[in-house]
Amino acid sequence: MADRVGLSSYQSYLMKGTGSSSPYTWTKIIDIKQAPAIGGEPERIDITTLSHSSRVYVLGIQDTESMSVTANYTPENYQAIKDLKGQTLHLAFWFGATTSGSTDTPDGRYGKFTFDGEIDCYKNEVGVNEAQDMTIVIVPSTEPEFTVGSSGSGSE
C-alpha cells in the first residue's frame, strides 16, 4: 500500500457520546462546514540564566482554547445545539467514515479527538447571496485525546 500523502476534509464529524461510562455510544450532532484547530501552542517557559548568550525556553502548558465550528443555520440545527447548552458533554471530532451505497457512517478511521466540554451557538451575520451560517462554540474541560479507530457510530 502506498503511503498516504494527505487527507480531504470530506467525512469530518462533530460527535456526542452518551452513556454513563466508556464505552460511549456516539452519534453525529449536526453536519458541520468547518472543523476547528484541536489543541494549541504550548506556552514557553523562560529558563535563561546569566550564563546564556540568548534566551532559552522549555515547553509549558498547552492552552486548549475554545473551538469554533461553522454549520448551516436552520432552526432545527440551532435548536439542536441550544438544547445541549449548560451540560458537560462527551464530545469528539471524528475524521473518516464507511460508505455503503449513499450512506456514510462515521468511524474515525483517520482520527478521533475526544474530550469533555460545553457547547453553545450563535447565528452569524449574512450578506447578499450568502448561505445562512451559525457558529458552534465549544469550551473543552478536558484535554483532547487522540485515537485512531473504526468502531462506527455505535460504541467506543
Number of helices: 1
Distance between the termini: 27 Å
- The mean pLDDT is 92
Shape: globular
Question: Could you explain the architecture of this structure?
Answer:
The two termini are 27 Å apart. The protein has one helix at residues 75-82, and strands at residues 12-18, 25-28, 42-46, 57-62, 67-72, 89-95, 97-100, 103-106, 112-123, 133-140, 145-147. The longest helix has 8 residues, at 75-82. It is globular and about 65 Å long. The protein is 5% helix and 42% strand. Strands 1, 2, 5, 6, 9, 10 and 11 form a 7-stranded antiparallel sheet that branches. Strands 3-4 form a two-stranded antiparallel ribbon. It has a two-stranded antiparallel sheet with strand order 7-8. The chain is mainly β and 156 residues long.
Keyword list:
about 160 residues; seven-stranded antiparallel sheet; single chain; about 5% helix; 11 strands; two-stranded antiparallel sheet; mainly beta
Summarize the structure.
The chain has 156 residues and is mainly beta.
How would the blueprint of this fold be written?
Layout: E1 12-18, E2 25-28, E3 42-46, E4 57-62, E5 67-72, H1 75-82, E6 89-95, E7 97-100, E8 103-106, E9 112-123, E10 133-140, E11 145-147
Antiparallel strand pairs: 1-2, 1-6, 3-4, 5-10, 6-9, 7-8, 9-10, 9-11
